[in-house]
Amino acid sequence: MLNWCRRFNIFILLDSNGYYPEQSGFEWKLAAGCKESVSLERGNGLNKLQAFHDRHKTWLFGHLGYELLNEKKEALPVTGREVDFGDGFFFIPEIIISLKEQELTIECASLLHETILAEIQASPAVIDKTVQETIILEHGITAETYLEKILALKRHILRGDCYEINFCQSFYANDTSIDPLSVYHQLAALSPNPFGAFYRLYDNYCLCASPERFIKKTSGTIISQPIKGTAKRNLEDEALDIAARNYLLNSEKEKSENVMIVDLVRNDLSKVCTEGSVRVTELLAVYPFPQVYQLISTIEGNVEAETPFTAILEACFPMGSMTGAPKKRVMELIEQYEQTPRGLFSGSIGYITPSADFDFNVVIRSLMYDATKKLLSFKAGGGITFNSIPEQEYEECLLKMEAIRKVLG
Q1: What is the pTM of this model?
Q2: What is the DSSP letter of 27?
Q3: 75-118 confidence digits (pLDDT tens)
Q4: Which residues are marked as active site?
Q5: Full DSSP string of 184-220
Q6: Looking at the DSSP assignment, which residues form a beta bridge with residue 205?
Q7: Distance separating alpha carbons of residues 2 and 189, to the nearest angstrom
Q8: Burial of 173 (C-beta count, 10 Å sphere; 0-12/13-18/19+)
C-alpha cells in the first residue's frame, strides 16, 4: 500500500495501528490524489474551508497549521530550520481506501476498484532502508538557553500571567537525504500510536507517530482527549515499568497539568456546545504506549445540528494541550519565547466527512522532511507549571523524540 502511494504528489494515510478501531471507525484510511484543493491562510482560513466544503459536500483531508488562527497579522519568519506546510491545506481525494474489521473499502469515481486493488497487490512491500549518511542534528537552542527560558516562564506563572504553558524546542538537519516512506514504516513499527499519519504535500512530508486526538465530531457529539503527563516505560523490568505507571497516577505535578487543560477544553467546548452538555467522561486515565505512559482525559459535549463545523474548530483550535492556560496569553508567550513558527507541529491532520463530521489528531512525535531543500526538522516540548524542574523538562523533551532519533540512526 505505502509503495503504491509513491505515485501521488498528495496523500494522507491515517493509521490507528490497532488502537481503538471502534473510536476511529477504521484500522487505517488512505486518501490519495487530488481532485481539487484549498489553501488556508491566517485571517480567513476557516471561512475559506467552510465555503469549500459547502460547495462540494464531500470528503476533505488535510491539515490545520498551529498559527492558522493567530490574530497577529505579522507572522514569525520561517527560517532554514522549519519545513513549511503553510497555514492549512485540504484536498478532495481521487481515491479513498479504508480497512475496517478485515474489510477493505475502495472509493473512486474514475478508476475501476478492481484495477486499483490489482495495482496495490502488484506493488512491492516496503523495504526498510537504514539511513546511510550520518545525520547531525542541530538544536534550535542550547540546553543552557532552554533552562533559562523555563525559568523565565516560571516567573510569568509566579506573576499570574498564566497557569501553565507548553514550551517547545526544535531540532533540525540540513543537506540530509532520507527515504520518507521507509523511515515512516520504521517509525510506525518502533512507536505505533493510535493517531499516526503519513502525509505528503508535494515535496513536504510529515511522518507522525501521535498518541493524541485533538477533537472528533460524530453527529451531535464532540469528543476531545488531551494528553498531559508522560512517564518513560521500562519493558525490560516489570517492577520499574509499574513504578512509572504509578508515578503518573500519584504525581501531583502531572495530575495538576492535566486537570488545568481539562478545564481549558471544557471552557472551549462550552462556547459551541448546548448548555449543560459538556462533561468529563474520563479523568486522569493512564494509557500504555510502546515508549511511554500517558495521562489522558476525555471531555465530551453536544452540539446543535446547525452549528457549522468551522465554529467548533474556531472555538477549540489550537488545542489546549499544546498551548496552556489561559490560551490567549500563553500563545503570546509561546511566540515570544520560542521565536520560530510551529507550523504543522502542534497543528492537526485529519478529515471532514460529507455530512461535516470530522476527526483530527495532534501533530506531535512527528518528523518533517522537505525533499527539495533536503531539510529535516522536528520539535518536542512539554507543559510548564510553577512546580516544573527545568532539567527534568529538558529530559522529557529528549524522551519524546527518542523514537525519531532511533530511526534516524
Answers
A1: 0.96
A2: S
A3: 677 777 889 999 999 999 999 999 988 899 999 988 888 899 89
A4: 212, 228
A5: HHHHHHHS--TEEEEEEETTEEEEEEE--EEEEEETT
A6: 200, 369
A7: 14
A8: buried
